[in-house]
Amino acid sequence: MRIMKIKVLLFARLREIVGSEMVELHRNEIFTVRDVWDTLQAEFPQVEGFGKSLLFSLNQEFADLNTRIEDGDELAIFPPVSGGDN
Amino acid sequence: MRIMKIKVLLFARLREIVGSEMVELHRNEIFTVRDVWDTLQAEFPQVEGFGKSLLFSLNQEFADLNTRIEDGDELAIFPPVSGGDN
Amino acid sequence: MRPYHQNETGDVYQIVQDAIQLDKLARQVSQPEDGAIVTFAGIVRNNTQGRRTLYLEYEGYETMALRKMSEIGATIKQKWAVNQVGIVHRLGRLEIGETSVGIVITSAHRRIAFEACHFAIDTLKKIVPIWKKEFFEDGEVWIEGDFTQLPTS
Amino acid sequence: MRPYHQNETGDVYQIVQDAIQLDKLARQVSQPEDGAIVTFAGIVRNNTQGRRTLYLEYEGYETMALRKMSEIGATIKQKWAVNQVGIVHRLGRLEIGETSVGIVITSAHRRIAFEACHFAIDTLKKIVPIWKKEFFEDGEVWIEGDFTQLPTS
Questions:
Q1: pLDDT tens digit string along D88-105?
Q2: Residues of chain B contacting C142 with CB distance shorter than 8 Å
Q3: CA–CA separation, A85 vs C84, rounded Å?
Q4: Fold classified for C12-140
C-alpha cells in the first residue's frame, strides 16, 4: 500500500497553535479534505476546538470537507479572513 | 413715492444672455422675488424663455417667487446648478 | 503649496482656482480615530456621450457655494458618525483629466464613509451654485443640472 | 518608489510590505475617459471599542490572496461599467494611521464607482485570505472575520 504525503499550509491563529506554517501528513488513504483534517486533529489535538469555523482551500480555491485531494495538491487551512480595515 | 434699488446677481447662461453679472433694477414697488423677475423680463426680454427652470436665492439662501425682499438684500438668479463631476 | 483651510471643527470647505490635491486634503483631515477614508474625485472627461470635449469652464456664486458646502458637511455630521469632512471645488478652466471637485470623508467605519461621501457629491450637484460650460471642437454649451424645487429657508 | 504593477487590462492587484500610496495608484490607473474616481483606504485605528491599540500585524496567504483580489476585480468589471480597478493590500507590522488596504475605482459615472468600490472592500473582507493580529498594551489577539460558508470552485 502506497503512503500519501500531503503538505498543509496553516495561517494565523491556527499556525500559531500548531507551531508551524506547514505540516506534512502521511497517511495510507487520503481522499478528501476531511481525511486531512482528521489526521491533523489526531497529530495536533490542540486544534480540535477550531473545527467549526475553519476554511479550507485546495490549490488556492475555497474547498470544503468533501473536496477530493490528489497527490501534489496545495491544501491550506485557516480561520475566517480578517484583512482590510479594522 | 420712494424708488427701491435692487441689485441682482446673474450667473452662467443667464449672465451671458443678459450680458452682465449684475444688474440694478429700479422700481417704486418691490415686495417679492416675483416683482424683480417681472422687472427683469421687462428690461431684458431675451430672458423670458428661461422662467420655468430658474433658481432664486436671497442672501445666499434659496428663495422662491413669493419670498419677500427688503432693501439691501442680496438677490441672485441662476439656472439649475451643474458643478461637480461631468 | 498652502494647506487647505480647516475650520474650527477641523473640516474643510474651500473653493480653489488651482489643482485639487486630494491626497493632501485627506492627510490633513485624518486622525488616529479613523478606520476608513473614502474619497471622491470628479474628473473632466474627454467626451460627453461620444462627443469630444476639449475643456470645461466652471463658474460659481462663491459665497453661497461655500455656505452650501458647509451645510452639506453639517448635515453629514448630523446623519452619520463621520470624523471629518473635506469638500474642495475648483473654478475656472479645467483640462481633461483634471479634478473639478474633491471630497474626503473619514470615519471609524467604512459603510458610513461610503454613504456620507456619496451623499456629499449627490447633494453638491443639487444645491451648490456652481455651473460648468463644456467646450467642444465645434461649439460650447452650458450644462444645466436637473431643475428641482429646492427648499427655501 | 516603483510604480504599481498594472496587468494586461491596466488593473492593479498587489501585495506590498511598505506604505501604500493611494494617490499614486489613482494617478497610475486613471484615463481620459474617467469622470469619477472613488478611493477607499482602510486605516489602522488607535482603538477597538475603546481599548487602545498599539499596532497591528497582517499576515497573508499571498498567492491565493492575489488570485482572490483579481477575482474581485473581474467580478466588478462584469457587474459595472468601471474603467479600472486597483487593489493593494499591505502585510507586516502597521502603525496607527497607516493604510492597510487601498482601493481605487475609476468610471465615467460616480454611482458606479461608489458601488464598485464598496463592493470591493466588502468582498475582500470575506474572501481574501489575509488576517490581522491586534496588539494592545496588555496583550494581543487574532482578529477573525465572520465565518461564512464560501463557494467552492
A1: 999 999 999 999 999 999
A2: 12-13, 16, 79, 82
A3: 17
A4: Aldehyde Oxidoreductase; domain 3 (3.90.1170)
